[in-house]
Amino acid sequence: MIEKWEEYRVVNEALDNLVNEVDAIPKVKKALRHIIKAGGKRTRPIIVLLSGRLCGGEWSEVMNVALAVELIHTASLAHDDVIDRGVVRRNVETLHVKYDTSLAILVGDWLISKSVELVSVYNEEVIRDFARVGMMMAEGEIMDIDSIKNGGFGEEDYFKCIAAKTASLFAYSAKNACRIVSDDKKAAEYLFNYGNNLGIAYQLVDDLLEYLEIFEDKKSEFESRTLPMIYEERYGFEEAVARTLQLIREYANISRKSLDYFDDCESKDKLLAMVDFMTADLLKNYVSKNREVLRLLESYQHT
């Protein structure tokens, strides 16, 4: 769906230009081409462009932060794949498998540094928030790794983990796009809520699909402790799936509701469609052939 949007084309074109024009040694440029050409949904930078336009701005005003959030996200994937010993992502060899571990780590570092350079054109508040989000993402990943090492990692710990690891960047993307083009503090707060709740809903979907072993384009040796696993221990398989689906629905609805503040327009419609794309549509696209699971996932669409 979003692959047909103009925002998707613009983001990919900007990323290609960045890689082609960047002043870096050949080995870094080659690795950058590999990890960026591997693709992705580009949801975070698209949310930046849509949020900026929703608040009265132009894409050009927020393009640097759009690229920055995609680069820091890409860096986190490069580092996560090393930590998780991932071998395939999006049906493409991970960077540390294609080249080597040291290069994957250092290119991840390069991407983080480049993302900081990109946001440096904005005001101090936007830059400071970006730094904080980077720290939150790292802390969330540490909590994720520790989830299988230490006993007692429960529901509350899980939500703290995904709020930091995943939701923080979505919230930053929406909120700070608004801040850059508008002084409307309420709009910025509503967009923060939109991104935060969407990020939580998305991570719940991602963890549920991994729990159901539906992913075919991602392979790794590390398995973190997720909410469906926690729920299965308490309630059994079917109830674990049902409860996770209910939470996905609730967080997705809160995300949509956050946009009620804004007048109807194309950007708002696309931000609303993004919620479906990252929740209900993902569930449908990766639905299991298992009849029991299929029935549970279908129930998500009818309640």
TrEMBL record:
Its cofactor is Mg(2+). GO terms for biological process: isoprenoid biosynthetic process. Its EC number is 2.5.1.29. Keywords: Magnesium, Metal-binding, Transferase. It holds the Pfam family polyprenyl_synt. One of its GO terms (molecular function) is geranylgeranyl diphosphate synthase activity. It is an enzyme of class 2 (transferase). InterPro entries: Isoprenoid_synthase_dom_sf (IPR008949), Polyprenyl_synt (IPR000092). Belongs to the FPP/GGPP synthase family. PANTHER family: GERANYLGERANYL PYROPHOSPHATE SYNTHASE, SHORT CHAIN ISOPRENYL DIPHOSPHATE SYNTHASE. This is Farnesyltranstransferase.
